Amino acid sequence: MRLPLSKLRDLVTDFNALADDANWNRFKSLPWKDIKPDLLTQGQKEAIIFVTHVEDYTPGYCAEYQALFPVNAPSRDEAMHNRELFHFVSRWGLEEDRHAQSLALYQVKAGIESDWDTLSAQMIVESQKEFAVGYRSLLQVCTYAFLQEKATQLYYQSFARNVSEPVLIKLLHYLTRDESRHFIFFSKVVGAYFDCFGLDCLSEVEEVAVNYRMPLHNTMLDYRRRAIRMAREAPGYDRAIPLKILFRFLEQIAIRHLEWRESINASIDRMAGRLRLSLP
Question: Which CATH architecture has domain 9-15+40-275?
Fold first, then answer.
């Protein structure tokens, strides 16, 4: 299944039109000199280190998109599709890299890690590890990103509510806004697939949901302990919420297409059962 070129182009154009008006400067938009390191707890410092690693994997994410959707594909139609997607990936990658470098800047300027070279060496350890999203279709890749972007958005929001260091709060608000736009793009792509291909999309979405794990879960040393510690620094954050948002997203599709309601509800029940999630 491949989205019609005109549809993909409209989605990418809308995203980039918003992105071009939503810029912030990682070097100038934040009052770096006003950081108050004494307001950070040790747990908050560890959470910042953790999310920096996740954001810093941007080259791996972009390389995966290029491998899955090469702009030099032999088929003309496929190449045109992939080139259109590249316009999104380029902008998305720029923003994710801005997140990583901003968090790294924060670490250095707050004294979490005072030496740039040491910090870079620490991040390279993770970024050298191979990343694979595990799916080949754009629908499944975007379903994965739907969950990932919503998870990071919600985490940054919850984290910001629990910190008192003012520059970190402002940085987290910038990150939240970007992640929200990213999530909206991916949700629109998934919705467009259902509009074009109907219930044929359901099994692919279901496969991603029941196997979903955040990036680096199987490569970062001591990932589980660090992820638990990170979550403790953001009271109210619940890693199950992105999945429940996906369920509500599917329910909205069923409202628009009543003839799909039985199949979509059955799929949601299967996913909730396998994930041991309670439904309202």
Answer: Orthogonal Bundle (1.10)
